[in-house]
Structure formats: C-alpha cells, structure tokens
Amino acid sequence: MSTAAASSPPSRSTAVDELVARLGDGVVVTRPETIEAYRRDWTADASAGMPLAVVRARTAADVQETLRWASAHGIPVVPRGAGSGLSGGSLAVDGGVTLSLDRMNAVEIDVACRVAVVEPGALNAEVKRAASEHGLWYPPDPSSFEICSIGGNVATNAGGLCCVKYGVTTDYVLGMDVVLADGTLVTLGGKRLKDVAGLSLLKLFVGSEGTLGVVTRAILRLVPAQPERSTLVATFASVSDAARAVVGVCAEIRPALLELMDTVSVNAVEDYRAMGLDRSAGALLLAQSDAPGAAAALEIATMEEVCRQAGTTECFVTDDADEGEAFLTARRAAFPAIERRGAILLEDVGVPVPVLPDLLAGIAEIATRHGLEIPVVAHAGDGNTHPIVVHDAASPASVAAAHEAFGEVMTLAIGLGGTITGEHGVGRLKKAALPDQLGPDVMALTRRIKDALDPQGILNPGAIL
Amino acid sequence: MSTAAASSPPSRSTAVDELVARLGDGVVVTRPETIEAYRRDWTADASAGMPLAVVRARTAADVQETLRWASAHGIPVVPRGAGSGLSGGSLAVDGGVTLSLDRMNAVEIDVACRVAVVEPGALNAEVKRAASEHGLWYPPDPSSFEICSIGGNVATNAGGLCCVKYGVTTDYVLGMDVVLADGTLVTLGGKRLKDVAGLSLLKLFVGSEGTLGVVTRAILRLVPAQPERSTLVATFASVSDAARAVVGVCAEIRPALLELMDTVSVNAVEDYRAMGLDRSAGALLLAQSDAPGAAAALEIATMEEVCRQAGTTECFVTDDADEGEAFLTARRAAFPAIERRGAILLEDVGVPVPVLPDLLAGIAEIATRHGLEIPVVAHAGDGNTHPIVVHDAASPASVAAAHEAFGEVMTLAIGLGGTITGEHGVGRLKKAALPDQLGPDVMALTRRIKDALDPQGILNPGAIL
C-alpha cells in the first residue's frame, strides 16, 4: 500500500474529504501532529504506517459510517482502543484510517442483572471502579488495567493475574454490539447468563483483534466483590522446584493468583528498587487466596505445605492486605525494572503447566547462546510466561540476536505443546510464527472465516493473517 | 430429499456399497432394525427421517473417511452422540447417514496437566468418574449426565446445575480435534490453559450442533474435587418473592447451585413420590454452598438472611450430605413426575435473572389461556428455566394448543431480553423461532459462517438453520 500525504493518489484525499463531510471535522482528524499520536501502540514499532486520517468515533453510528465509507472505497481500517497493545495489533497502516474508540467510554452498571454495559473506549479500571461502587467486581486484570481499554481487552481476549481462578475476558463477555466490515451493526448475546441459541458468534469476535468487526458495546458479567486476600511468598533453589510447587498447588486448590519470578527478574527488581527480595533465590512464587473467612487460612496452609514438599527455601505468609499488595507491587515492578536494563522484546508464550521447567531451562539456554539477558515473570498457575528479551537497540548485532532469540522462544513453546501468545494477541509482531503453531489447515480455516466476514480484507489488514 | 430404501435412486445404494467397501460392514450399519435405534433422540420426534445407513465410527480416521465419502456424493451427515438430545439436533434425515460416535469412548486423565482427553462417545459421568479417581472434577453437569455423551455436550455447549458457579461446557474445552466437511482433521487448542493465538475457532465449534464439523477428541479442563456441600431449602408465597431472593443471593455470593421449582412442579413431585415438600408453597428454592471449611456455613447464613428479607415462609438448612442429596433427588424427580401427567414439550428459555418473575407470570398466563398445565423448574441463578408443556397426545386440539403455547413461551422470553435456549440447543425443534431471537442480520452472519465451513451443506442439514 502506498504511503499517504503528498504521495497518496488524488482519489484518497477525495475519499478523506468525503469522510469529513459524512462525519465532521471534529471526528475526522487529519492534522499530522495529532495523527502521529495514534500511529503506534506500546510496541513502539518504527515500521508503523502513516494513515490518511484518524476517526475519533463518538457513537456506534460513526463507526458504521466509517466502515460503510471504507467498504465503498476499499480503504483499510485499523480499530484502536487505548493503544496499550503489546503485539502491534493497532499499528497504523499506510493509506488506511485508524478508527479510535477512545471517545466512546460510557460505563453503566445494571446491579440487578450484575452486568456492566460498556463502550469500548472505557478503561478496564473504570469498569472495576464502577462495579465496586455496587459491591460488584469485574475480574479480568491485565497488568495494564489502569490504562488499557475494554475494547482492546475484548479484541485480544485479555488475561491477567487472577485468570488462574477467575478466567479470562471471554468468560465475562455476555453480549456485544459489533459493526461488520460493510457497516452493519449486529447485536450478539445480551444480559442473560446462559444462551446457546445459534452459533457462538459472540465468542468468535472475542480475541479476533479487530479483523472481523469493531465492537461498539460490550455487556460484561460481574461477580460479587472479591473477599480479602491472604498472601504467600515462597523462594526456591530452582525454577524446577517452583514449578513442581505450582503443579501441586493447582491440584489441591484454586489459588486467586499464582505468579512466578525467575532469579534474573528478582534481581532486576532489587536493582531497580530494593524490596528485600532474596537475590539468591532460583525462583520466587507469589500466591494469594481469597477464600471467604477462615477458608483462606486453610488454603494458605495447603499451599505452604505443598511448597515445603517441593523444597521451598523460605516461605512467608501474611493476611495483611498492605503487605500482600507490597509483594504484588514488586511483581508489577518487574517490567519497568527490566526496561531500565535495555531495549526489550516482550514474549507471551504459554505451555502446559508441568513443562514450565523445560520452557524456562530452554529460555536460559537461548539467552546464554545469544549472550542476552532474558528474565522471566509468569502467570505460573496458567503456564503463561513473559520472557523479556533485553538488548542494546544501538547495536545492530544485539538487535539481530534479540529478534532471533524472540523467534526461538516461540519455537520452543510450540515444541512443548504451547502457544506463542497466552493473552497479548498475535497482532503484527507474532504473525510470522502463527503458521508454525497452527499449521496450514487451521490457517486455511482461519482464512475462510476471515474471507466470509471481511471479503474485501479492509479490517485491520496485516494483523493475525 | 427422497426417502431411502426401495424408493432411493440407484446411485444412493451404490454410494452405500462404496461406503461399506471403504469402512467395512461392521462399521456401516444397514439393517433396518438397527438403523431404527439411531433415528431419534429424546424428543422422539415422529418426523425423523430414514437414513441410508448408520456409521458407527471406531476412529477419527473412520469419521474422516465418512465425510470424504459424503462430500464426494453430496450426502448429508447427521453426527450423533448418546441420542439424549432434547431439541432434535441428531434426528436422522432422509437419504443421509447418521454418524454415531458411540464406539469412540476413550477417557484419559492427564493428572499433571489437570485435563481429560476424551473421545466424543464417552459419557459425561465417565469423565467425572475417571477424574475423581485422581481427586479431580469435571464440573459441567447436565441433569442427564449419567447418559449423555461429551460429544453431545460439546455440540450443544451443555449446562447443568452447577453452572451458576462453575460455568458451562465451553468454559472447560481447552482443545479439540474436529473433522471438517471435506474430511480434513484439524487440531485446535491443546493442554495449555491460556491461548489467544489466532481466531477463537475452538469456541466457534463448541455449540455448533454438528453443523460445522464433527468433534473426534476433546481436551477438557479439570479442577480440584468439589468440597462437601451444604444445602438450603426455602419456600416462598410467590415466585416473585423467590426470584427476589435469587437476585439477592447472587449479588452477595456465588452459590454452587441455585434451583427453583414452581408450585405446579412441587405438587407434581409430591404426587409422584411423597417427599414432604410444602404443597402450599408458591415456589421453592434449593441452594447449595461448597465453600471450603467454615466458609460454607457463612455462605449458607448469608443466603438464609437474603431469603428472610425476601419473605421466605420456611427456611431449612443442613450440612448433611445425604439430606442435601435427597432434596436434589426431589428436584431431579420433577421431569419423570411431570412426564406421568401427559405428553410433554420441554422448553429451555432463559432471561436476565431480575425478570424471572415476569417470565413465570407470563408462562402461567399462557397455560391458563390454553387450558394447559405448564410446570416450571429452573436453574434460577442463571435465569435458565424449563417450562414443561403438558398435553394430551391423543387429542389433536391439545397437541395444537401445546405447540402454540410452546411457541408463545419462546416469544415471551425473547420479548424479555432472553433466549429460546439456554443449554439444550436449537436443533430442529426450535429453529423456526431462532430468527425471531437473532434477527435477519445475525441469521445472515450465521449463514456466511456455515457456508464458509460447509459449502455443500452436508453437515447436519436442518439443524439450527
């Protein structure tokens, strides 16, 4: 596709004029300085394209109008939420329009039905806050929950820390309005909790990364407020011991959170901000129980016993909420701590829980071979890990090694019966590896669905496929 | 489509000969007496067609071979599990073949990964039993769990009693092998717990009722064994009071089970087998907590208080497992009890929980107007109800009234923001009402997916669409 601006064919600028005429100048942004802010997501990928314009939709009708226009002209549309994506799913494309949903951010709580009716631009944290005012809770909690949007969460089927007990985004989406490529708005599902009438189209759109339609409203299931959490922190001599504890814990109870940090990430956090973590630990497990009342102590005791049997070197428990939160803060500090060590490529590979030790050993080998540091933090209870490939952006050799290592980690995960992405999505950054995981027949099936729903290929081209 | 046997065109019997040659005589059943046993499901619909043959597949390769053959000849294939379906999803079609998966019933438990790897013909109860041998639990529990197959559960996205806390079948399907219309076998998902690589094709096949492919293997998530359950039984003067208690309970805790019986079904059960239920009650709620240890008593106390505030006329609690099971037996006795009162048409409508009273009042009005009895039992915590239209099969007027009432109940549910089916599926019995719920645009979208995956329309034609 040709780049926009001066070099774009005249028909394109005529098309943009038509879009402005349809939607208004305040909705269609064409100022290059403003467009610039909408070109990239958190991957900060330098290869992001230059869009003709950014549409900042106010209503579902604006979204419909944009897609009718795009269909008529065959112009690509990249839907965009808060721009916090980690796999390049909302990187702008040359000659397309970026359709930002950031203005559509209404949140309405239906207390009796225990659902939130949410526009896609609302932040995850805003939904949580609105629900909590009524003693309700929206569980999915990506680490970025304060700044990521529900639209993006639905598009990527986002996960988080509490998934190990409470599931991921798709488990909470009861209904949605979605605008199809031709501008048709369809309503799927609703406020009922169980519904098997017709194909599971709702579930197909969750995780489709803007390639099948644009979600303009989501109906999200809420549950009663989470009870107080008790916390356990256990250190282990090796990642393999810690992984055995993870398998053991999940066979006995359903912890509310079960995170792992390897020794490199523990030390990165300590370098960044001394938090008193044991630098000599081969791995650290952070677990929580939110079982009601006295049952939390029971679950914590169970986990402590499992950790002892797996050879924990030190085990600390607390039911003080602030103390527990301090450990979570240390865990969340891993990303900024590691970012201080160099440029990063963030992985999201997942494997069956019992092969976590093999995955982590393999990653250590890849790091050594390429002379790179690859610290790992993990939603260990789900087998979902975030190896972080640290490198020197100023050194072409380091950048090349990092990209090689990035690919090798995905290949390793696939070889272990795992996935290249557990919660971030494929986007544009991981799509080269997708056929290696899915194989030609599943790729062909994916293409048939895509072609059936977006025959012109205007919806987020270059993402996933 | 023409009927088989003598009137079928010669090409059909040649085609069957070819199928026998490909699969063997022991796999392809052509004896009319044997075929008869595979023509209907529990709906016992007299309009079931006459298939050319029944294939009793032993392996996924048999399924592939059958579909390659069917594609080559353009012959319809009706997949069939245990034949316990309640909406006619596996009724045979004239001139087609019924593809029975009853021989493929292997169950393998991977303890470390906490998954069951299951062939489609295995019964739900067999999976539960195999899991329990390792201290694990497969939660989805249709009332028919002792006799329904996992393949059918996946095909209908089956629910049950514990869904209110533990979710439905789709929440437990981590992976599957599925044979497409042309015989291609694809593997989706796997033993990893989180996976967002590519479109959610896995979730699309769950609940597709055999119209998109034939599942030959499912990987099912298991959780730790359910703790002991405590039970609460509360009676109310009216269904509306009981429904207020349901809303109140679900706003505070997540009960492990929350069932409702209306006064007609309570009396039907007492007529059938005296269980000491209060015949004068307007409605009865049956709830359980499985919170660990002392927390169960806490949850039961919370539910008791909510029931008192909603005006319960009597509230009984027990943590005796046998006593709790006796009440569940009474609840499960509702179907046989009601079947003794006449021929039945079984509904599966669902609504948002707060409008349950409106749904039940509307059903009572429909019953009165048609001079029919329509008792209701409900998975109340999910808003999923089973009104049962009792009628006299020997009276054409009664049969006509029952079918009218059946349709009116679905229309009522749709009008209340609900669904025509919460867990049984659309099959052939409810498909006339599906467009009323989904509307033309969603029907068109459904058709596009169907055509993309089954362009010849050979997979379970007449179901859903």
From TrEMBL, chains A, B:
One term of GO molecular function: oxidoreductase activity
InterPro entries noted in UniProt: FAD-bd_oxidored_4_C, FAD-bd_PCMH, FAD-bd_PCMH-like_sf, FAD-bd_PCMH_sub2, FAD-linked_Oxase-like_C, FAD-linked_OxidoTrans_Type4, Oxid_FAD_bind_N, Vanillyl_alc_oxidase_C-sub2
Keyword annotations: FAD, Flavoprotein, Oxidoreductase
Cofactor(s) needed for function: FAD
Domain FAD-binding PCMH-type: 47-225
Family as reported in the entry's similarity comment: Belongs to the FAD-binding oxidoreductase/transferase type 4 family.
Protein name: FAD linked oxidase domain protein
Source organism per UniProt: Nostocoides japonicum T1-X7
